[in-house]
């Protein structure tokens, strides 16, 4: 569970790394039965993803390190950092959990809502472990 949560936080760290103002990352554990099943929410003020980037995230065995050609990457120009002590700016996913494995380790479905920083459009992806 710790590595799964670390991966989700790492995704938010990557999304907020180019922020010129304050980086905001919230982790919420939701247990209110009136709102549905228990959930983990990771909320950040990063650059957001387009609908194509959200769909690419949902492709099995398509990682930020192997996306090319027809697949639009949200990590263009990504360079894995040199080995350094782990910190808030390190590459936690270096250990290889992956976002899809992380969300489905924590629960049976994923709901991602994203608004690209340079767009007025809001995109949503809902994916069940069974469908994935």
TrEMBL record:
Pfam families (UniProt xref): HATPase_c_3 (PF13589)
Domain of life: Eukaryota
Gene3D superfamilies assigned: Histidine kinase-like ATPase, C-terminal domain
Name of the protein in question: Structural maintenance of chromosomes flexible hinge domain-containing protein 1
Coiled coil region boundaries: none
Biological process annotations from GO: double-strand break repair
Listed PANTHER family: STRUCTURAL MAINTENANCE OF CHROMOSOMES FLEXIBLE HINGE DOMAIN-CONTAINING PROTEIN 1
């Amino acid at each position: 569970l710790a590595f799964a949560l670390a991966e989700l936080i790492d995704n938010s760290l990557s999304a907020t790394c180019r922020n010129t103002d304050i980086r905001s990352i919230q982790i919420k554990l939701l247990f209110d039965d009136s709102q549905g099943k228990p959930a983990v929410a990771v909320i950040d003020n990063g650059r957001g993803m387009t609908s194509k980037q959200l769909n690419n995230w949902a492709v099995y065995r398509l990682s930020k390190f192997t996306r090319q050609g027809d697949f639009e990457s949200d990590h263009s120009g990504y360079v894995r950092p040199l080995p350094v002590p782990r910190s808030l700016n390190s590459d936690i996913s270096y250990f290889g959990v992956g976002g899809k494995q992380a969300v489905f380790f924590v629960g049976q479905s994923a709901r991602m809502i994203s608004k690209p920083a340079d767009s007025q459009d809001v995109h949503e992806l809902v994916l069940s472990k069974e469908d994935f």
